[in-house]
Amino acid sequence: MTRYGDGYDEMTRGLDEHGALSTGGAPDDVTQFLTELRLLGIGEPPEPSDEVAALLGAPPSLTRRRATRVLVRSGLAAAALVIAVVAAAANHNLPQPAQRVVSNVVNVLTPFEIAPRNASPPTPPTAVPSVPQAAVPTTPAPHPRATRTAQPIVPVPLPPSRAATGSGDDRTGSGQPSATTDDHPVPDSDDGAGSGAARDITPSAAPTRGDDGAPPTGGRGDL
Amino acid sequence: MTDSVARDAARGDRDAVGVVYAALSPAILGYLRARGVDDPEAMTNDVFVKLLPIVPELKGGADGLRKLAFTIARARMIDSLRARSRAGTTVPFDPTLDNRAVPSAEDDAQAALALARVHAVLDLLPEEQREVVTLRVVGDLTVEQVAAVIGKSSGAVKQLQRRGMVAIRRALQERRVTL
After folding, report:
1. What distance in Å separates residue A50's CA from the closest CA in chain B?
2. Of the candidates A1, A2, A40, which has its C-beta nearest B118's C-beta?
3. What is the pTM of this model?
4. What is the predicted ipTM?
5. Residues of chain B with CATH 1.10.10.10
């Protein structure tokens, strides 16, 4: 391993190139000194520090491995949380402020886009015509409960006998054909007409007056 | 350590890097101990922290690697001695005065005594002679390598070595130092 070998003769031969050791004296003491000096450089390698161990490619220490494991787990948990929040935002399941924030972040920072929850514009602040002033049937204002009846309401002709008497199930009490059924609920009016048991009656879809312009009479819908 | 090992280490072979560390670190550690550095093990690690990243850029085979390692070690040693001179001197540990020693520490005490004797002899030499003798014997460097490490010519190194060995022989002959 060493250039001089383990023998003193070889080692001193290398040092004695100019006869430094051949001038007499106490060769035994010089030999002992050089041997002790030489032994300082022979032995086990020192324990490598963490930095040297990393450079040598040794496996990281247990503490470092544990720290790496914790870091990976934290990263996975954070990624799962982000995915859950974005998924909830895409389904509009978050509270409104959080929904706005997450939607903005996703729309700005990612190629995906979260559409606004309500595609319809907000309800204009127009007054609903009152019953006496409404000469013609008006289209009711959009109402959350009316969203499932988007198709136009078609008057259903009644049998002549029932239409003439205005009795029975003719809830309008005006002798007009009933314009609504339970399959077509309509929004409530603001004037209180059609409240209570008459909530399923459509005051605006059905004529609220008779053909002669007289106010409707009878019928629970006018209570 | 051979040239092929040095080449493999330069290519990033982990096993070869380990061989380089195993071959050089004891000599570096011994050199730093002989020069009286306070914490030779830590400084040996510092040397390899500096050396190993630049091994891929190294040319010159095993001799070049050894030369560079001792150049770094010598620079660190000089910095340490300068820092110590600024901070004040420390008293080396004397195991014969330590009554806490237990029989199981006998080997350590013997090693410390041997190191103390080596220091006693080396301290008699001028700095340049001490450097040359230490690098030649402990570092196992050739005259040319020592010349490259300390920045002198080969002839100057040979002269310093000869004078150093004569001074050591004379000191031991005159019993100024007892081994």
Report:
1. 9
2. A40
3. 0.51
4. 0.79
5. 105-179
